[in-house]
Each structure stands twice: as C-alpha cells, then as structure tokens.
C-alpha cells in the first residue's frame, strides 16, 4: 500500500463557529468546523485549545530537532507517511531525517517522530519517537522506553506555545535500548510451528474465538486469514534473518505497517505500539532466565493448534 507524503492533505482551514440553539448562541460551547468542506468535527467548551495540524507539525519539528540535537537544517526533516481518515477529523504524520541512520546487523533504520492531532476530541495531541526499517519501511514505536509527549486540548495544558523538555541524551539512550532489544530478539530461537502464534501474541490480535454462531464463523475466518498471511511473512523473514524472535518482530512490524489492499489503515498506529511494547517485554523476560515461550504465547498457541486440526 502506497505511503501518503503529500503534506497539503492535512493543511486545510479549520476554525470555530458558534453553536446556536433556538436562534441564540450557546455561550459555553463552540463548534470546530472544517471550513473547506463545511463539516462540523465536534462541539467543545470555550476552554478548548484548538491546535491546527500546521501548528502540530511545527511543534513536532521543534521536538524532533531537540531530540536529534539539530540546531539548524530544519528543511532536512521530511514527511515519511501520513495517516488520515476520509473524515479528516484526526491525523498522524511521521517525520524523518535521512541523515540519522541506525545500523543493526547490516540493516539500516531511521528514527521517526509521529505527530498525532485531532479536531474531534478522540485523540490527545501527542508526539512519539519510533524506528523504521528502511529496506521495507516497517515502523515500530516502543512502549515503556518511548519518547512521548502528550497534551490535552485545553488552554491550561498547552498555553500559548507547546513546550518540550528533552534531555540531551534521551535519543542516544533510546537508540541504545533499540539496538539492545534487537540483539536480544536475535539471540532467541523460535521454531516455525510456534512463530505465527508468537506473532499474533506480539500484535495482540483479538480474534473473538470465544463467541458462538455466525459470529464465531467470522472469528475463524479472521484467524485463518491471519494465519495465512502470517505464515508468508514468517517464512520471508526466517529466510532473511534466521529462525529467531527478531524475524518474528520484523514479520509483526510488516503486518502492522502494511495492511492488505482494501483493509483499514486505522490500526497501524495501534499495532506498531503493541509490537514495540511486546519487543521490550519479550527481551526483558528472556534475559531474566527460566523463560517459557509457550507460557509467553499463552492462549494464541491453542488458537493455531485448533486451526491446524
């Protein structure tokens, strides 16, 4: 599925409009309006702090520059991908800087900053640092070790300007955690018959296999579709990277970052975060000793044993 890098798609005019009831404006509330399409995104209180996508991107560039220690050359921050639904009520924009490559095992990764903004109160304003494997453009955002800034859309929370407090060594430390995690995943062997179940565990796929009737039939179809695609991805990365958890990690980020044609893109962010969280949990548990892979995979082992029967 082709990436969207056209920044103009998110830079449409947005503003406030009065909420009118029985011919009178409601003093306590206003509507957020897509001025280009004439659509109402939502109704908010007077304290709501409207951040346009343009403002969010400008803040994201400042944040990324501080994380990377860049004082100048803002023009080298490029748009890598844009995720936005047809409603345009929210968006996610990934920024990269081509010059900052991270090498692991001969593979090249880039750090990216994901800017999330919304006009309908469904998402807070947030900025997250992630990593993308260049050869296949698979992205991941780590969990507990992530660089993340979140702001509620209120005047009190944001103020006149979005501010970031970033330690100078934060990016360096996160890069070290990323490489250490990849090393830990590479060191752990995974047999082929357990790989797809582990991949489902990494993505926390919800199949709904506890249901009944026609709903259960749909759940089985979803499970089987995942198994078929998962096996193809697993075989691909096993051949390329060896039969280990790092290959499962890459198969999982591939699944997360590249939904099949006709499938919704709205879970890309969720899946990328889940895989990042799983990667750190897996390596922490594996390093601790007495690690039981079957226990880690848990219920997913049964799901795929059932499908093979």
Structure description:
- By secondary structure, the protein is α+β, with helices and mostly antiparallel strands.
- The chain has two domains: 48-179; 187-308, no CATH class.
- Helices cover 41% and strands 25% of the residues.
- Strands 4, 5, 6, 7, 8 and 9 form a six-stranded antiparallel beta sheet that branches. The chain has a three-stranded antiparallel beta sheet with strand order 1-2-3, with no helix packed on it.
- Helix 4 (192-203) packs across helix 6 (245-257), helix 4 crosses helix 9 and helix 6 packs antiparallel against helix 7 (268-288).
- It is globular and about 65 Å long.
- The two termini are 33 Å apart.
Q: Quick summary of this structure?
A:
This protein has 309 residues and is an alpha+beta fold. The chain has helices spanning 53-68, 155-158, 170-186, 192-203, 213-241, 245-257, 268-288, 293-297, 299-308, and strands at 14-21, 24-34, 39-45, 77-83, 90-104, 107-118, 125-133, 138-140, 148-151.
Number of domains: 2
User: What structural class do you assign from the helix and strand content?
Assistant: alpha+beta
Distance between the termini: 33 Å
Strand tally is 9
How are the SSEs placed, and which strands pair?
Layout: E1 14-21, E2 24-34, E3 39-45, H1 53-68, E4 77-83, E5 90-104, E6 107-118, E7 125-133, E8 138-140, E9 148-151, H2 155-158, H3 170-186, H4 192-203, H5 213-241, H6 245-257, H7 268-288, H8 293-297, H9 299-308
Antiparallel strand pairs: 1-2, 2-3, 4-5, 5-6, 6-7, 7-8, 7-9
């Amino acid at each position: 599925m082709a990436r969207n890098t056209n920044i103009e798609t998110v830079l449409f005019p947005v503003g406030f409009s009065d909420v009118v009831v029985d011919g009178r404006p409601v003093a306590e509330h206003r509507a957020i309006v897509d001025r280009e399409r004439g659509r109402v995104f939502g109704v908010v209180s007077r304290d709501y702090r409207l951040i346009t996508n343009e403002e969010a991107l400008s803040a994201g560039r400042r944040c990324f520059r501080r994380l990377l220690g860049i004082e100048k050359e803002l023009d080298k921050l490029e748009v890598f991908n844009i995720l936005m639904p047809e409603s345009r009520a929210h968006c996610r924009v990934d920024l990269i800087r081509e010059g900052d490559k991270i090498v692991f095992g001969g593979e090249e990764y880039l750090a990216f900053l994901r800017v999330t903004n919304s006009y309908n109160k469904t998402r807070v304003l947030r900025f997250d640092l992630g990593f993308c494997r260049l050869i296949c453009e698979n992205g991941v955002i780590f969990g507990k070790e992530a660089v993340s800034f979140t702001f509620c859309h209120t005047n009190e929370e944001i103020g006149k300007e979005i501010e970031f407090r970033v330690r100078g060594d934060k990016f360096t430390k996160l890069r070290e955690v990323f490489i250490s995690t990849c090393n830990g995943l590479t060191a752990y062997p995974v047999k082929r018959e357990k790989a797809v179940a582990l991949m489902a565990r990494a993505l926390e796929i919800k199949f709904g296999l506890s249901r009944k009737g026609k709903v259960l039939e749909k759940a089985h179809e979803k499970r089987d579709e995942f198994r078929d695609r998962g096996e193809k991805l697993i075989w691909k990365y096993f051949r390329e990277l060896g039969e280990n958890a790092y290959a499962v990690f890459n198969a999982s980020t591939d699944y997360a970052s590249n939904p099949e044609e006709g499938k919704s893109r709205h879970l890309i962010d969720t899946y990328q975060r889940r895989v990042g969280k799983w990667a750190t949990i897996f390596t922490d548990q594996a390093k601790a000793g007495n690690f039981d892979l079957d226990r880690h995979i848990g219920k997913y082992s049964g799901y795929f044993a059932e499908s093979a029967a």
